Amino acid sequence: MPKKLSLLMLPGDGIGPEIMAEARRVIDWLVSHRGLDFTVHEDHVGGAAYDVYGKPLSDDALACAKEVDAVLLGAVGGSKWDGVDYDKRPEAGLLILRKELELFANLRPAICFDALVDASSLKPELVSGLDIMIVRELTGGVYFGEPRGIETLPNGERRGVNTQVYTTSEIHRIARVAFDMAAKRDGRLISCEKANVMESGLLWREEVTKIGADYPNIKLDHMLADSCAMQLVRNPKQFDVIVTDNLFGDLLSDVAAMLTGSLGMLPSAALGAEGSGAMYEPVHGSAPDIAGQGVANPIATIMSLAMALRYTYDCADEAQLIEDAVKKVLAGGLRTADIMQPGKAKVSTAVMGDSILQALDSLNR
Ligand code: NAD
């Protein structure tokens, strides 16, 4: 009997429904061709949910998100909801999910497909074969630390304050996610902070080192975050897994993303504690400029599904199949408009989806 797998799909706004439709076809293929026993729920999030429920995530959708093994989200946002109260804005739907599912670990892979090496801002030889995983702490650090705010001093000058704060338990749990990730990959982990100038960084370094004692097979090294930024653009292939805090992770994952060339290709995951929630989503937004035209690139969403198969559903073979199918289609010269190159064939969202399904068929034989 195949294991029962449950998923909540939240297409969201803009191109969200278009790219999610292609991910849905891949799920249907997995059910019919690989025998996976998926129960798929679907609901609204973001502006689409606001239009239906008057809030960016309904109580039922939140309850369902807590119930299922994983959430697959398209994208949220759009100018239509600019005038809506802050706590009902589309983006609030995402924040509610992150908070309620306690998604403290953000996984951002930066993979450079051979067919797209020319799209990178770096030289092809520096990025060909690139495969980095950045593990970013998502719910602590300077974005949440207290005290925070803007105050006016007695002399009339204004002062802005944010506080970088981490506890040992916060560091331990993100470190374990990163060590576990490295164990599933090449076994190398770089931990980044600014231990040279920040006490919170020193604590981070000491506590990650302590957790490392439980993972004797993982090679742990420490790097200052500014040095890591420099190394990412100098010699990115030296990295396997990078673990870092919320602020540095925000910056470093964007740098790593751009090494790969296109926003439409990048998946991500946010994970909670073992056995609790998980949410997978493309890195890009709702792309209002191309919404409804059928030209969006569905690959980031389909690769997010592949991540879910690998990291939540324990279906590494199916994840690999999807990744190989995407590579095959790109190698065959098909491109959506965002990754179009001279001499290649420009295709719509649906044709890219069709081609990935055909590649799955041929690789599954
Ligand atoms: P965006 O990622 O939506 O778009 C940036 C550019 O990339 C646009 O030109 C867009 O057409 C293109 N693009 C993005 N994804 C693409 C895809 N799959 N295929 C082809 N082209 C693609 O970023 P933005 O324009 O800054 O933001 C638009 C809206 O999305 C805003 O409301 C923003 O708040 C929201 N947003 C949401 C998320 C999310 O849901 N996680 C993330 C970022 C931005």
Mean pLDDT equals 95
Bin the helical content: 40-55%
User: Can you identify the CATH superfamily of the largest domain?
Assistant: Isopropylmalate Dehydrogenase
| Widest beta sheet: strand line-up | 2-1-3-12-11-4-5-10-8-9
Q: Which molecules are bound in this entry?
A: nicotinamide-adenine-dinucleotide
Number of strands: 14
Span of the ends, CA to CA: 22 Å
What is the H/E order? EHEHHEHEHEEEHEHEHEHEEHHEEH
CATH A-level architecture of the largest domain: 3-Layer(aba) Sandwich
Task: Write down the domain tally.
Answer: 2
CATH topology of the largest domain: Isopropylmalate Dehydrogenase
What does this protein look like?
This protein has 365 residues and is an alpha/beta fold. The chain has two domains: 1-104 and 275-365, Isopropylmalate Dehydrogenase (3-Layer(aba) Sandwich), CATH 3.40.718.10; 106-271, Isopropylmalate Dehydrogenase. The protein is built from twelve helices and 14 strands. It has helices spanning 16-34, 47-53, 59-67, 90-100, 124-127, 168-184, 199-212, 225-234, 246-259, 299-311, 316-331, 349-363; strands at residues 4-12, 37-42, 70-75, 105-111, 131-137, 149-152, 158-161, 188-193, 219-224, 241-244, 267-271, 278-282, 334-335, 345-346. A ten-stranded mixed sheet has the order 2-1-3-12-11-4-5-10-8-9, sandwiched between helices. Strands 6-7 form a two-stranded antiparallel sheet. β6 and β7 form a beta hairpin. The radius of gyration is 21 Å and the shape is globular. The mean pLDDT is 95. It binds nicotinamide-adenine-dinucleotide.
